[in-house]
Amino acid sequence: MSLISDRLTQFASSKLAVLLDDAGSGRAVIVAPAHSISEELVNKILTLSGGLTFVAVSPERASAFLLSPMSRSQVSTRAGEGQHLSLYTSVEARSGVSTGISAADRATTLRILGEQTPLPRSLVRPGHIFPVETKVGGVLVRAAIPEAALDVAVLSGFTDAALFMDLLNHSGDVLSVTDARALAQVHDIPLFSISELIQYRVSREQLISRVAEAIIPTKQAGELRAVVYRSALHEVEHIAYVKGSIASESPVLVRVQSENTLADVFGGSQPPSRKQLHNSLRAIGERGSGIVLYLRKPLITDSSSSANELLSTPNATAQMREYGIGAQILRDLGAGKIELLSSTTRALIGLSSFGISVIRQIAIPDYELNSETPR
Questions:
Q1: What 3-state class would DSSP assign to 183?
Q2: What is the H or E stretch that residue 62 is in?
Q3: Cα–Cα distance for residue pair 187/184, rounded to 1 Å
Q4: What is the value of pTM for the model shown?
Q5: Among residues 238, 242, 250, 206, which one has the least CA distance to residue 226?
Q6: Is 13 left (phi over 0), alpha (psi -120 to 50) or beta?
Q7: Which among 2, 133, 164, 283 has most CB atoms closer than 10 A?
């Protein structure tokens, strides 16, 4: 398989790609830039696909077009069962279309969605084209089909609007990965996977930077090195508490926890999140080395759940695969192989794409049950 940079060059010329979600759902979609798309290309895509016409748009473009979320903001299609998309209200070109269904009509609407300068009055609602919400930061923040499709388009020099449609077989079911690869080969279409896009971007972009360091004393783990990172995506700071030396070739004990300030600092006598944090610190203190990564809310929106649980949830591909920042921090600290302290035992998704392998998951010790008094 050619280098991803060569495939991006091919996509810039052919304006067509096959995209595999190898990080989660296993879906295969066909992707094209909305910018300057032709009727002929839309007709070819409809022949190859047969799915609904989705367009991944950046938050900036969605705002410029005054797109609003659908009243039923999530939809699950037959082709993408279990794959939920956050949709904006469907749109149509205000002029130059008839029913909106034909390849020519769809191309007209798609060109408007992808034009260099968005003109909101050029669209009416509802229509036959479904804009889809994406996260700032693309696959480095959420490893999902919409972000990946948009990354392919933008990395190839097109505007931030990417058409994607599920690849279906003659029965209307999702095309298998094997068949999707065969289709790409037969039609000479460049093929991308989400993990490849993550690897490509993470090797070329740095979305976090160290802004401060200090040595702090703790009851649970003794002296720790606190390293503060600033996120270029969310303009917030995340904190890594590091014990001992970290070597990429040696397994490192790691706890990733989302911010829950009220409970962790002020709430109750023993809230679950604070207990998990303190017990994780103690486990790392007893090991003599390790990392506790405390992530701010813009990265993990559900403050009632730990980041580990969100990473390991089966529906994470549809809900919250926003762990790119945390993975980059772990990489920056030198962690390559990790033993993950977690309250779940579910399989993790996609961390290997960031150059991090999970050797095993370890249950967070309950020191209230296993010892007389916590340190």
A1: helix
A2: helix 59-64
A3: 5
A4: 0.70
A5: 242
A6: alpha
A7: 164
